[in-house]
Specification:
Helix 3 packs parallel to helix 4. The protein is α/β, with parallel strands linked by helices. It contains eleven helices and eight strands. Keywords: Decarboxylase, Lyase, Pyrimidine biosynthesis.
Length: 283
């Protein structure tokens, strides 16, 4: 049996049992993009404007909804409308890490009601598999998907060795059907040969074409290193795309900054897709 990395996204979509992962793979194949934009801006209008600018080039918008200062449910409604307009899914990067009961309340309730609008979310396995069961109780009836944080991109991350392996083992033996992949830097499910048990997605942050890192431990690799060399499936790009908005120049002339944001989206989309075509031998 061959590695998951040699299959096309379309082929994998056809056999994917998790509805959110299936929709994501179908969207990737349809739009020819493995780019997810991480929109880490702190006001509602900027968040929506970035999504509108890069929407045509992405399969997935990743949010940190708790950093938005003027959050309200209208933001969620508008974001959902943009996801339909541009054909992308939404991933709230919430990184749940509490006991099952608390995680399930954090996912379903509170101000953000994440489960009601986010197709995909993620969790640390630190509390043990009960965090999966707690979240699955809420997410499975809504056809959502869960990623386990098997590896992180920051320098000195403790997500390695037996911890990473435990994430892989839990994902493979998950009976809820909720776990559909990982946040990881490499093809963690194929460390010991092809994964023939269960198709799992690998979404990878820490991607940049122009710089190697930031001053707070982030480490960047190129789309080619991530998709072709490391066999991951989706590149997650934040400041590499919306960065032009954060400069002094960008704050003064937002219109010009959004032109650059759109161009960066196109650039990362192209780089990610070329790396994928090279990986599956179509280039
Ligand atoms: F799980 C992880 C991780 O290991 N590294 C990350 O960078 C998540 N992230 C997120 O991806 C992080 O919280 C940001 O939202 C985003 C990366 O943003 P950047 O601007 O491309 O560095």
């Amino acid at each position: 049996m061959s590695s998951i990395t040699l299959k096309s996204y379309a082929e994998r979509a056809a056999n994917q049992p998790n509805a959110a992962a299936k929709a994501l793979l179908e969207c990737m194949a349809r739009k020819q993009t493995n780019l997810s934009v991480s929109v880490d801006v702190t006001n509602k209008q900027d968040l929506l404007d970035v999504c509108d600018a890069v929407g045509p080039n992405v399969c997935l918008v990743k949010t940190h909804i708790d950093i938005v200062e003027d959050f309200d449910m209208d933001l969620v409604e508008q974001l959902t409308a943009l996801s339909k307009k541009h054909d992308f899914l939404i991933f709230e990067d919430r990184k749940f890490a509490d006991i099952g009961n608390t995680a399930s309340l954090q996912y379903s309730s509170g101000v953000h009601k994440i489960a009601s609008w986010s197709h995909i979310t993620n969790a640390h396995l630190v509390p043990g598999p009960s965090v999966i069961s707690g979240l699955a109780k809420v997410g499975v009836p809504l056809n959502r998907g869960l990623l386990l944080l098997a590896e992180m991109s920051s320098a000195g991350a403790l997500t390695k060795g037996s911890y990473t392996q435990a994430c892989v083992d839990e994902a493979k033996k998950d009976t809820t059907g909720f776990v559909c992949g990982f946040i990881a830097m490499s093809r963690v499910d194929e460390k010991e040969g092809p994964n023939t048990e269960k198709d799992l997605l690998i979404l990878t942050p820490g991607v940049g074409l122009d710089v190697k890192g930031d001053s707070l431990g982030q480490q960047y690799r190129t789309p080619d290193q991530v998709i072709r060399e490391s066999g991951c499936d989706v590149i997650i790009v934040g400041r590499g795309i919306y960065g032009p908005l954060m400069t002094e120049e960008g704050k003064k002339d937002k219109k010009a900054a959004f032109v650059k944001v759109r161009e960066q989206g196109e650039r990362y989309k192209k780089a990610g897709w070329e790396a994928y075509l090279a990986r599956i031998g179509q280039k």
